[in-house]
Amino acid sequence: MVKKYSTSDMIPFSKSIPEAAKNSGTYVVATRKGLKVLPAMDKKHMKSLRNIFGRETYLNYGDQVQVVSIMDKWVKLSRGHGYIYLEDENDLVKVGAALDKACILESEMHVLSSRKKFMRKAKSKVEKDAAKMMVELRNILVSEKDLTIQKNPDNAHAVNKNLLPALGLSRFMESVVGTE
After folding, report:
1. SS in 3 state form for 49-77?
2. CA 166 to CA 157: how far, in whole Å?
């Protein structure tokens, strides 16, 4: 059967970049025990505290950070400074918009990347649906009678008056052809 697509199957592009501002911004460490900055979004790296600069990074209570995105308790820091895993969502509190232009751009790029990934999946789904429709069409063309053009068996040249109203052409055809 032919799949009909609705607007809910598509991304509302009018909201594209403002979505980046939802999670990005300036955050403050709100837990007294502090937070570890990890080099990768992987729990097995939680013992390894060295960031890209080769230093161990530990955030203390009250420290501010520039956050690009938050997903599944993982916080991505701006400028490649690493990730924070949040045991409790209240350990890091948003206090304002991003102050760093790099953070803003990274956040927008993150949203666009997510959209690109979604669009690839959507494109793949549409291509699969189109292939199924082509197979269905080929089967119909082979197995079913072609009803595209039907001659009137009684009089091939006469206009069938019964078909004209259904086609919405009765008045037009009567004036042009004359159906008497």
Report:
1. CECCCCCECEECCCCEEEEEEEECCEEEE
2. 19
Phi, psi of 165 (to 5 degrees): -65, -35
Write the pLDDT tens digit of every residue in 28-86. 999 999 999 988 887 665 555 555 555 668 999 999 999 999 988 999 999 989 999 99
Structure-block tokens of residue 125:
């789904």
The model's pTM: 0.57
Tokens of 120: 């690839």
Q: From CA 43, how far away is CA 103, in angstroms rounded? A: 24
Distance of CA 104 to the CA centre of its chain: 21
Q: Distance between CA atoms of 150 and 141, rounded to whole angstroms?
A: 16
The position carrying tokens 């990890």 is 38
Range with the largest mean pLDDT of 5-19, 40-54, 98-112 = 98-112
With tokens 């924070």, the residue in question is 84
